[in-house]
Protein backbone atom coordinates (compact mmCIF):
# COMPACT_ATOMS: atom_id res chain seq x y z
CA UNK A 1 0.00 0.00 0.00
CA UNK A 2 2.84 2.40 0.81
CA UNK A 3 4.44 2.25 -2.67
CA UNK A 4 1.05 2.75 -4.40
CA UNK A 5 0.05 5.60 -2.12
CA UNK A 6 3.46 7.25 -2.55
CA UNK A 7 3.16 7.11 -6.34
CA UNK A 8 -0.39 8.51 -6.24
CA UNK A 9 0.80 11.40 -4.03
CA UNK A 10 3.77 12.05 -6.33
CA UNK A 11 1.41 12.37 -9.33
CA UNK A 12 -0.75 14.81 -7.40
CA UNK A 13 2.30 16.73 -6.22
CA UNK A 14 3.72 17.05 -9.74
CA UNK A 15 0.26 18.06 -11.01
CA UNK A 16 0.04 20.71 -8.29
CA UNK A 17 3.49 22.10 -9.16
CA UNK A 18 2.72 22.22 -12.91
CA UNK A 19 -0.75 23.72 -12.35
CA UNK A 20 0.53 26.50 -10.10
CA UNK A 21 3.81 27.02 -11.94
CA UNK A 22 2.11 27.48 -15.33
CA UNK A 23 -1.10 29.09 -13.92
CA UNK A 24 -3.26 26.44 -15.61
CA UNK A 25 -7.04 26.32 -15.07
CA UNK A 26 -6.81 22.56 -14.38
CA UNK A 27 -6.49 21.74 -10.66
CA UNK A 28 -3.33 19.81 -9.72
CA UNK A 29 -5.14 16.53 -8.94
CA UNK A 30 -6.79 16.56 -12.41
CA UNK A 31 -3.39 16.99 -14.05
CA UNK A 32 -2.15 14.17 -11.81
CA UNK A 33 -5.06 12.02 -13.00
CA UNK A 34 -4.27 12.70 -16.67
CA UNK A 35 -0.61 11.89 -16.04
CA UNK A 36 -1.68 8.69 -14.30
CA UNK A 37 -3.86 7.63 -17.29
CA UNK A 38 -0.81 7.99 -19.55
CA UNK A 39 1.48 6.21 -17.08
CA UNK A 40 -0.77 3.19 -16.45
CA UNK A 41 -1.47 2.88 -20.17
CA UNK A 42 2.28 2.58 -20.69
CA UNK A 43 2.99 0.26 -17.76
CA UNK A 44 0.81 -2.68 -16.81
CA UNK A 45 3.01 -3.22 -13.75
CA UNK A 46 2.22 0.25 -12.46
CA UNK A 47 -1.50 -0.26 -13.12
CA UNK A 48 -1.54 -3.52 -11.14
CA UNK A 49 0.30 -1.79 -8.29
CA UNK A 50 -2.07 1.21 -8.14
CA UNK A 51 -5.38 -0.57 -8.80
CA UNK A 52 -6.13 -2.13 -5.38
CA UNK A 53 -5.42 1.10 -3.49
CA UNK A 54 -7.32 3.17 -6.07
CA UNK A 55 -10.33 0.87 -5.88
CA UNK A 56 -10.25 1.03 -2.10
CA UNK A 57 -10.21 4.83 -2.14
CA UNK A 58 -12.86 5.15 -4.87
CA UNK A 59 -15.19 2.72 -3.10
CA UNK A 60 -15.50 5.32 -0.34
CA UNK A 61 -15.35 8.39 -2.55
CA UNK A 62 -18.60 9.77 -1.12
CA UNK A 63 -17.18 9.83 2.41
CA UNK A 64 -14.57 12.33 1.25
CA UNK A 65 -17.26 14.91 0.34
CA UNK A 66 -18.68 14.97 3.86
CA UNK A 67 -16.32 17.53 5.49
CA UNK A 68 -16.88 20.03 2.67
CA UNK A 69 -20.60 19.28 2.70
CA UNK A 70 -20.84 20.09 6.40
CA UNK A 71 -19.66 23.57 5.32
CA UNK A 72 -23.35 24.13 4.67
CA UNK A 73 -23.58 25.30 8.30
CA UNK A 74 -21.22 28.15 7.49
CA UNK A 75 -23.35 29.12 4.46
CA UNK A 76 -26.83 29.02 5.94
CA UNK A 77 -27.39 32.78 5.45
CA UNK A 78 -26.34 32.61 1.76
CA UNK A 79 -28.44 29.52 1.13
CA UNK A 80 -31.47 31.06 2.83
CA UNK A 81 -31.12 34.34 0.92
CA UNK A 82 -30.62 32.66 -2.47
CA UNK A 83 -32.50 29.42 -1.89
CA UNK A 84 -35.11 29.73 -4.66
CA UNK A 85 -32.59 31.07 -7.22
CA UNK A 86 -30.15 28.22 -6.50
CA UNK A 87 -32.88 25.57 -6.49
CA UNK A 88 -34.26 26.67 -9.87
CA UNK A 89 -30.75 27.01 -11.36
CA UNK A 90 -29.75 23.51 -10.15
CA UNK A 91 -32.91 21.68 -11.23
CA UNK A 92 -33.30 23.34 -14.66
CA UNK A 93 -29.60 23.25 -15.59
CA UNK A 94 -29.09 19.62 -14.52
CA UNK A 95 -32.15 18.27 -16.33
CA UNK A 96 -31.46 20.41 -19.41
CA UNK A 97 -27.82 19.24 -19.52
CA UNK A 98 -28.90 15.57 -19.37
CA UNK A 99 -31.45 15.99 -22.18
CA UNK A 100 -29.09 18.04 -24.38
CA UNK A 101 -26.21 15.61 -23.77
CA UNK A 102 -28.29 12.49 -24.45
CA UNK A 103 -29.86 13.90 -27.63
CA UNK A 104 -26.47 15.16 -28.86
CA UNK A 105 -24.97 11.69 -28.27
CA UNK A 106 -27.82 9.87 -30.08
CA UNK A 107 -27.78 12.22 -33.08
CA UNK A 108 -23.99 12.10 -33.42
CA UNK A 109 -24.02 8.29 -33.07
CA UNK A 110 -26.60 7.96 -35.85
CA UNK A 111 -24.66 10.40 -38.04
CA UNK A 112 -21.39 8.44 -37.83
CA UNK A 113 -23.07 5.01 -37.63
CA UNK A 114 -21.72 4.19 -34.17
CA UNK A 115 -23.85 1.43 -32.64
CA UNK A 116 -23.99 -0.01 -29.16
CA UNK A 117 -22.58 -3.50 -28.48
CA UNK A 118 -25.71 -4.61 -26.66
CA UNK B 1 -14.81 23.23 35.93
CA UNK B 2 -16.33 19.74 36.24
CA UNK B 3 -14.56 16.65 34.92
CA UNK B 4 -17.05 16.31 32.08
CA UNK B 5 -16.46 19.90 31.02
CA UNK B 6 -12.69 19.36 31.18
CA UNK B 7 -12.88 16.25 29.04
CA UNK B 8 -15.15 18.04 26.56
CA UNK B 9 -12.81 21.01 26.30
CA UNK B 10 -9.88 18.65 25.77
CA UNK B 11 -11.72 16.68 23.07
CA UNK B 12 -12.85 19.77 21.18
CA UNK B 13 -9.25 20.98 21.00
CA UNK B 14 -8.15 17.72 19.31
CA UNK B 15 -8.86 16.40 15.80
CA UNK B 16 -9.97 12.95 17.04
CA UNK B 17 -13.53 13.90 18.06
CA UNK B 18 -14.70 15.40 14.77
CA UNK B 19 -12.78 12.91 12.66
CA UNK B 20 -14.55 10.08 14.50
CA UNK B 21 -17.90 11.87 14.24
CA UNK B 22 -17.42 12.26 10.46
CA UNK B 23 -16.75 8.55 9.98
CA UNK B 24 -19.64 7.50 12.24
CA UNK B 25 -22.08 9.87 10.54
CA UNK B 26 -21.11 8.53 7.11
CA UNK B 27 -21.38 4.96 8.35
CA UNK B 28 -24.92 5.69 9.59
CA UNK B 29 -25.78 7.37 6.29
CA UNK B 30 -24.46 4.43 4.30
CA UNK B 31 -26.50 1.96 6.40
CA UNK B 32 -29.68 3.94 5.82
CA UNK B 33 -28.88 4.13 2.10
CA UNK B 34 -28.53 0.32 1.95
CA UNK B 35 -31.73 -0.15 3.98
CA UNK B 36 -33.63 2.12 1.57
CA UNK B 37 -32.43 -0.15 -1.29
CA UNK B 38 -30.13 2.55 -2.62
CA UNK B 39 -32.86 5.12 -3.09
CA UNK B 40 -31.11 8.24 -4.48
CA UNK B 41 -33.11 10.38 -2.04
CA UNK B 42 -31.37 8.61 0.88
CA UNK B 43 -27.93 9.75 -0.25
CA UNK B 44 -25.35 8.77 2.43
CA UNK B 45 -23.46 12.05 2.11
CA UNK B 46 -26.61 14.11 2.60
CA UNK B 47 -27.59 12.05 5.65
CA UNK B 48 -24.08 12.41 7.12
CA UNK B 49 -24.07 16.17 6.46
CA UNK B 50 -27.47 16.60 8.13
CA UNK B 51 -26.36 14.57 11.18
CA UNK B 52 -23.09 16.48 11.55
CA UNK B 53 -24.61 19.91 10.87
CA UNK B 54 -27.23 19.23 13.56
CA UNK B 55 -24.50 18.14 15.95
CA UNK B 56 -22.36 21.24 15.26
CA UNK B 57 -25.27 23.62 15.68
CA UNK B 58 -26.54 21.94 18.86
CA UNK B 59 -23.07 21.93 20.48
CA UNK B 60 -22.28 25.45 19.27
CA UNK B 61 -19.18 24.22 17.42
CA UNK B 62 -17.75 26.48 14.70
CA UNK B 63 -17.18 24.95 11.26
CA UNK B 64 -13.47 25.85 11.47
CA UNK B 65 -13.13 23.79 14.67
CA UNK B 66 -14.94 20.87 13.07
CA UNK B 67 -12.68 21.09 10.03
CA UNK B 68 -9.56 20.75 12.23
CA UNK B 69 -10.56 17.12 12.60
CA UNK B 70 -12.35 16.54 9.31
CA UNK B 71 -9.50 17.91 7.20
CA UNK B 72 -7.83 14.47 7.18
CA UNK B 73 -10.81 13.06 5.30
CA UNK B 74 -11.09 16.15 3.08
CA UNK B 75 -7.40 15.89 2.17
CA UNK B 76 -7.94 12.49 0.51
CA UNK B 77 -10.06 14.12 -2.24
CA UNK B 78 -6.87 14.99 -4.14
CA UNK B 79 -5.39 11.48 -4.20
CA UNK B 80 -8.88 10.09 -4.97
CA UNK B 81 -9.06 12.33 -8.04
CA UNK B 82 -5.72 10.93 -9.24
CA UNK B 83 -7.17 7.43 -8.71
CA UNK B 84 -10.05 8.18 -11.14
CA UNK B 85 -7.36 7.41 -13.73
CA UNK B 86 -7.98 3.68 -13.12
CA UNK B 87 -11.65 3.51 -14.31
CA UNK B 88 -10.97 6.11 -17.01
CA UNK B 89 -8.07 4.12 -18.46
CA UNK B 90 -10.09 0.88 -18.27
CA UNK B 91 -12.72 2.51 -20.49
CA UNK B 92 -10.32 3.91 -23.10
CA UNK B 93 -11.36 1.24 -25.63
CA UNK B 94 -15.05 2.04 -25.29
CA UNK B 95 -14.21 5.73 -25.60
CA UNK B 96 -12.30 5.19 -28.87
CA UNK B 97 -15.19 3.19 -30.34
CA UNK B 98 -17.71 5.97 -29.77
CA UNK B 99 -15.33 8.92 -29.94
CA UNK B 100 -17.42 11.29 -32.08
CA UNK B 101 -20.71 10.99 -30.13
CA UNK B 102 -18.76 11.19 -26.88
CA UNK B 103 -17.03 14.42 -27.81
CA UNK B 104 -20.21 16.02 -29.20
CA UNK B 105 -22.26 15.06 -26.13
CA UNK B 106 -19.47 16.06 -23.76
CA UNK B 107 -19.19 19.60 -25.12
CA UNK B 108 -22.98 20.03 -25.48
CA UNK B 109 -23.81 18.63 -22.03
CA UNK B 110 -20.99 20.32 -20.16
CA UNK B 111 -21.63 23.73 -21.72
CA UNK B 112 -25.38 23.46 -21.10
CA UNK B 113 -24.78 22.55 -17.44
CA UNK B 114 -22.49 25.50 -16.74
CA UNK B 115 -24.12 28.17 -18.92
CA UNK B 116 -27.76 27.47 -18.05
CA UNK B 117 -27.04 27.35 -14.31
CA UNK B 118 -25.15 30.66 -14.44
CA UNK B 119 -27.75 32.35 -16.66
CA UNK B 120 -30.65 31.39 -14.38
CA UNK B 121 -28.81 32.27 -11.15
CA UNK B 122 -27.65 35.61 -12.58
CA UNK B 123 -31.20 36.45 -13.72
CA UNK B 124 -32.46 35.67 -10.21
CA UNK B 125 -29.92 38.01 -8.63
CA UNK B 126 -26.97 35.82 -7.57
CA UNK B 127 -23.72 37.67 -6.80
CA UNK B 128 -20.26 36.90 -8.23
CA UNK B 129 -19.18 34.66 -5.36
CA UNK B 130 -22.33 32.59 -5.73
CA UNK B 131 -21.85 32.30 -9.51
CA UNK B 132 -18.24 31.15 -9.08
CA UNK B 133 -19.36 28.57 -6.53
CA UNK B 134 -22.15 27.36 -8.84
CA UNK B 135 -20.20 27.16 -12.14
CA UNK B 136 -18.45 23.78 -11.60
CA UNK B 137 -21.41 22.03 -9.90
CA UNK B 138 -21.78 19.29 -12.54
CA UNK B 139 -18.15 18.15 -12.16
CA UNK B 140 -17.27 15.45 -9.63
CA UNK B 141 -16.84 16.95 -6.14
CA UNK B 142 -13.05 16.87 -5.69
CA UNK B 143 -12.58 18.58 -9.05
CA UNK B 144 -15.47 21.02 -8.57
CA UNK B 145 -14.06 22.07 -5.20
CA UNK B 146 -10.66 22.72 -6.77
CA UNK B 147 -12.21 24.73 -9.63
CA UNK B 148 -14.40 26.75 -7.26
CA UNK B 149 -11.36 27.65 -5.16
CA UNK B 150 -9.47 28.79 -8.27
CA UNK B 151 -12.44 30.91 -9.45
CA UNK B 152 -12.91 32.74 -6.16
CA UNK B 153 -15.96 30.76 -5.08
CA UNK B 154 -16.66 29.14 -1.72
CA UNK B 155 -15.46 25.50 -1.91
CA UNK B 156 -17.78 24.35 0.88
CA UNK B 157 -20.79 25.95 -0.81
CA UNK B 158 -19.75 24.26 -4.07
CA UNK B 159 -19.63 20.91 -2.29
CA UNK B 160 -23.26 21.34 -1.23
CA UNK B 161 -24.33 22.43 -4.74
CA UNK B 162 -22.49 19.46 -6.29
CA UNK B 163 -24.31 17.03 -3.99
CA UNK B 164 -27.70 18.55 -4.78
CA UNK B 165 -26.94 18.45 -8.53
CA UNK B 166 -26.12 14.74 -8.35
CA UNK B 167 -29.29 13.98 -6.42
CA UNK B 168 -31.50 15.95 -8.82
CA UNK B 169 -29.97 14.11 -11.78
CA UNK B 170 -30.27 10.69 -10.13
CA UNK B 171 -33.91 11.17 -9.16
CA UNK B 172 -35.20 12.55 -12.47
CA UNK B 173 -33.01 11.00 -15.18
CA UNK B 174 -34.87 7.73 -15.76
CA UNK B 175 -38.47 9.00 -15.96
CA UNK B 176 -37.34 12.03 -17.99
CA UNK B 177 -35.39 10.10 -20.66
CA UNK B 178 -38.11 7.41 -20.81
CA UNK B 179 -40.65 10.13 -21.55
CA UNK B 180 -38.40 11.43 -24.34
CA UNK B 181 -38.11 7.90 -25.78
CA UNK B 182 -34.29 7.87 -25.82
CA UNK B 183 -33.19 4.22 -25.87
CA UNK B 184 -29.43 4.31 -26.53
CA UNK B 185 -28.00 3.28 -23.12
CA UNK B 186 -24.66 4.82 -24.04
CA UNK B 187 -26.29 8.21 -24.65
CA UNK B 188 -28.40 8.03 -21.50
CA UNK B 189 -25.49 7.00 -19.28
CA UNK B 190 -22.96 9.37 -20.77
CA UNK B 191 -25.21 12.42 -20.46
CA UNK B 192 -26.01 11.48 -16.85
CA UNK B 193 -22.32 11.20 -15.94
CA UNK B 194 -21.58 14.58 -17.54
CA UNK B 195 -24.45 16.41 -15.82
CA UNK B 196 -24.70 14.55 -12.50
CA UNK B 197 -21.17 13.11 -11.84
CA UNK B 198 -20.73 10.24 -9.36
CA UNK B 199 -24.24 10.21 -7.88
CA UNK B 200 -25.73 10.11 -11.40
CA UNK B 201 -23.20 7.43 -12.36
CA UNK B 202 -24.19 5.27 -9.39
CA UNK B 203 -27.82 5.61 -10.50
CA UNK B 204 -26.91 4.70 -14.10
CA UNK B 205 -25.23 1.48 -12.92
CA UNK B 206 -28.46 0.47 -11.15
CA UNK B 207 -30.43 0.89 -14.37
CA UNK B 208 -28.09 -0.66 -16.94
CA UNK B 209 -24.42 -1.76 -17.06
CA UNK B 210 -23.66 -0.04 -20.36
CA UNK B 211 -25.27 3.14 -19.05
CA UNK B 212 -23.09 2.91 -15.94
CA UNK B 213 -19.86 2.41 -17.87
CA UNK B 214 -20.62 5.37 -20.13
CA UNK B 215 -21.68 7.47 -17.15
CA UNK B 216 -18.27 6.96 -15.56
CA UNK B 217 -16.62 7.98 -18.84
CA UNK B 218 -18.82 11.10 -18.93
CA UNK B 219 -17.99 11.97 -15.33
CA UNK B 220 -14.23 11.56 -15.91
CA UNK B 221 -14.13 13.57 -19.13
CA UNK B 222 -16.36 16.32 -17.75
CA UNK B 223 -14.05 16.73 -14.77
CA UNK B 224 -11.35 17.73 -17.24
CA UNK B 225 -13.56 19.81 -19.55
CA UNK B 226 -15.26 21.74 -16.71
CA UNK B 227 -11.84 22.84 -15.46
CA UNK B 228 -11.33 24.57 -18.83
CA UNK B 229 -14.91 25.59 -19.56
CA UNK B 230 -16.11 26.93 -16.19
CA UNK B 231 -13.65 29.88 -16.04
CA UNK B 232 -14.41 30.86 -19.66
CA UNK B 233 -18.20 30.71 -19.32
CA UNK B 234 -18.09 32.38 -15.90
CA UNK B 235 -16.37 35.42 -17.43
CA UNK B 236 -19.40 35.93 -19.69
CA UNK B 237 -21.59 36.38 -16.62
CA UNK B 238 -19.41 38.50 -14.30
Automatic annotation (TrEMBL), chain A:
Domain of life: Bacteria
GO CC field: plasma membrane
Main location class: membrane
GO MF annotations, alphabetized: hydrolase activity
UniProt KW keywords: Cell membrane, Hydrolase, Membrane, Transmembrane, Transmembrane helix
UniProt entry tagged with the keyword Transmembrane helix: yes
TM region(s), chain numbering: 29-46, 58-79, 85-109
Membrane topology (UniProt): Multi-pass membrane protein
Places the protein is found: Cell membrane
Protein name: Putative effector of murein hydrolase LrgA, UPF0299 family
Naturally occurring in which organism (per UniProt): Rhodobacter aestuarii
TrEMBL record, chain B:
GO CC annotation terms, alphabetical: membrane
Signal peptide extent: none
Subcellular location: Membrane
Pfam family, one: LrgB
Chief subcellular location: membrane
Keywords from the named record: Membrane, Transmembrane, Transmembrane helix
Keyword match Lipid biosynthesis: no
Transmembrane segments: 6-29, 41-64, 70-88, 100-121, 157-180, 213-237
Membrane topology listed for this record: Multi-pass membrane protein
PANTHER family from the UniProt entry: PLASTIDAL GLYCOLATE_GLYCERATE TRANSLOCATOR 1, CHLOROPLASTIC, PUTATIVE SEROTONIN TRANSPORTER
Protein name from the UniProt record: TIGR00659 family protein
Lineage: Bacteria, Pseudomonadati, Pseudomonadota, Alphaproteobacteria, Rhodobacterales
Amino acid sequence: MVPALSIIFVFQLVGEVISRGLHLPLPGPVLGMLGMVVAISASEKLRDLIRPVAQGLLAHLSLLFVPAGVGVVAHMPTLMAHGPALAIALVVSTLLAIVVGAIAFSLAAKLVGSVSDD
Amino acid sequence: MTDAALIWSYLTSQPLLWLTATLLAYWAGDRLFQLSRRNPLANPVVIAVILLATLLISTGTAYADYFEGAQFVHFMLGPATVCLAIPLQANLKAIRKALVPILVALVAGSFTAVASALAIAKLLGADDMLLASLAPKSATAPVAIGISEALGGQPTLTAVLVLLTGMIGAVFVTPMLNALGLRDWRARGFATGVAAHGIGTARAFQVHDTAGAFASIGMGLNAVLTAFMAPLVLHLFL
